[in-house]
Amino acid sequence: DAGVIQSPRHEVTEMGQEVTLRCKPISGHNSLFWYRQTMMRGLELLIYFNNNVPIDDSGMPEDRFSAKMPNASFSTLKIQPSEPRDSAVYFCASSPPGALSLSNQPQHFGDGTRLSIL
Amino acid sequence: AQSVTQLGSHVSVSEGALVLLRCNYSSSVPPYLFWYVQYPNQGLQLLLKYTSAATLVKGINGFEAEFKKSETSFHLTKPSAHMSDAAEYFCAVTAPFGNEKLTFGTGTRLTIIP
């Protein structure tokens, strides 16, 4: 079975440019999460969706970051304009419907996008 | 709110020795607890989870963890380390209701000495 698919795997761009990260969750999963991982701050949840609706975006650093989930099989995380401090590995994860609650189900992670802003 | 503290950002053990990775949690409600493993250049993979059933939870690759409410701990163990266990390990906590998100610890990097 295909896991969570993220693209691109690596992105190098100059500051000020727009960056778009893409994620295809596992088919049948109805929750999707975007994380950022850095050495300094560890793994941070940026935003998550349930049934394509954003539930909690309190982790989004600032207005330069935006995320969309137009349908159940695709999500994007956009940074505009990008800055060097945005350099990190960005992970997308998805989880299946839970019998009782969202938290009962494990999250399945993609392999991440390594983003470098010069 | 929930949080986890992982003691020791780096742990080294000899091949064949006991692996013990420590995790203590803080939660105002009975928590759900998870251990994830991350291999180089990969995403996180679930090792095991505690969701208020048996306090001793067995996971993949021979790992297990015991939920101890009195100690607010959920330490991860494996009786005999293998070279393939070298990775980073994350403890995570959430509340067992609603749409609560996972809160991850800072991770412990496990090195296996041949």
Question: Can you tell me about this structure?
Answer:
The complex is a heterodimer of chains A (118) and B (114). Chain A is mostly beta strands and 118 residues long. Chain A has strands spanning 5-7, 10-13, 19-24, 31-38, 42-50, 53-56, 65-71, 74-79, 88-95, 108-109, 113-117. In chain A, strands 2, 4, 5, 6, 9, 10 and 11 form a 7-stranded mixed sheet that branches. In chain A, strands 1-3-8-7 form a 4-stranded antiparallel sheet, with no helix packed on it. With 114 residues, chain B is mostly beta strands. Chain B has no helices and 11 strands. Chain B has strands spanning 3-7, 10-14, 19-26, 32-38, 44-50, 56-58, 64-68, 73-78, 87-94, 103-104, 108-113. Chain A binds chain B through residues 4, 33, 42-43, 45, 48, 50, 55-56, 91, 93, 100-104, 106-112, and chain B through 32, 34, 36, 41-46, 49, 51, 90, 94-107.
Percent range of helical residues of chain A: under 10%
Q: Rg of chain B, please?
A: 14 Å
What would the principal axes of the Cα set say about the shape of chain B? globular
Order of helices and strands of chain A: EEEEEEEEEEE
Number of strand segments of chain A = 11
Subunit arrangement of the protein: heterodimer
Number of helices, counting only DSSP H or I runs of 4 residues or more of chain B = 0
Round the mean pLDDT of chain A to the nearest integer and report it: 91
Secondary-structure element order of chain B, as H and E? EEEEEEEEEEE
Shape of chain A: globular
Gyration radius of chain A, rounded? 14 Å
**Sequence stretches where pLDDT stays below 50 over 5 or more residues of chain A:** none
The largest sheet of chain B is: 6 strands, mixed
Largest interface: A-B, 23 and 26 residues
Helix residue percentage of chain B? under 10%
Look at the helices and sheets of chain B and give the structural class: mainly beta
The N- and C-terminal alpha carbons of chain A lie at a distance of 36 Å
Count of β-strands of chain B: 11
